[in-house]
Amino acid sequence: MVSALADGKALPAGELAAVAGISPQGASAHLQKLVDARVLSVWAQGRFRYYRIRDDDVAALIENLVDLAAKSAAKTSAGRRRAMPAEQLRQSRTCYHHLAGQLGVLLSNALIRRRLVAIDGRDGRVTEQGLAWCRAEQIDFDPARQPHLRLCNDWTERVPHLAGPFANAVLTRLVEMRGVAPHRIRRALRITDRGRAFFDRLGVQVPF
């Protein structure tokens, strides 16, 4: 159920129960525990209650837990071929409100390499060059929000991509300009010609 909310959407308990393959009563009990643990937030609209991941920090924690689970599965299935995630998810997907997968890692590496962002430990900031780039690309980012960004471990690529307010703003712009579009697989994205042009301006050739 938590994975189904990893793209930042809010879903009702009935839909989450169907995703998990459990009864609505069982789902409600689990969801209440997640709300009590401050993993999820909930609000009522009419007779429905909608659940979503509480914040960006929790989303990063979930991504790390998925990565840990994948590593554990690899160890327990030694000697057998392990099922790989769908190629579309591996190439490009949402992780809460930011970009993940191969495309997210390409973006992160380019921003760091061009010194548009500076990393200090697990957190980072947008540089003056980065703020100028935001203006040029019409990315609506408020530098007053701290920290600007942080590293989030990518569960398919096993290296970090960028999360946080700045990374969220970049994905918002890519969606607005139709640089990426939803794929039929939940959370998966496909890059468009406009998106390729965006990455070209960063000096990145997208290989898929």
UniProtKB/TrEMBL annotation:
Q: Which InterPro entries match?
A: ArsR-like_HTH, HTH_ArsR_DNA-bd_dom, HTH_Metal-responsive_Reg, WH-like_DNA-bd_sf, WH_DNA-bd_sf
Q: Which SUPFAM superfamilies match?
A: Winged helix' DNA-binding domain
A GO biological process held by the record: response to lead ion
User: Where is each HTH arsR-type domain found?
Assistant: 1-73
- Tell me one GO molecular function of this protein: cadmium ion sensor activity
Which SMART domains does the record cross-reference, listed alphabetically? Answer: HTH_ARSR (SM00418)
Annotated Pfam families: HTH_20
From which domain of life does this come? Bacteria
Protein name as it appears in the record: Helix-turn-helix domain-containing protein
Species source reads Bradyrhizobium septentrionale
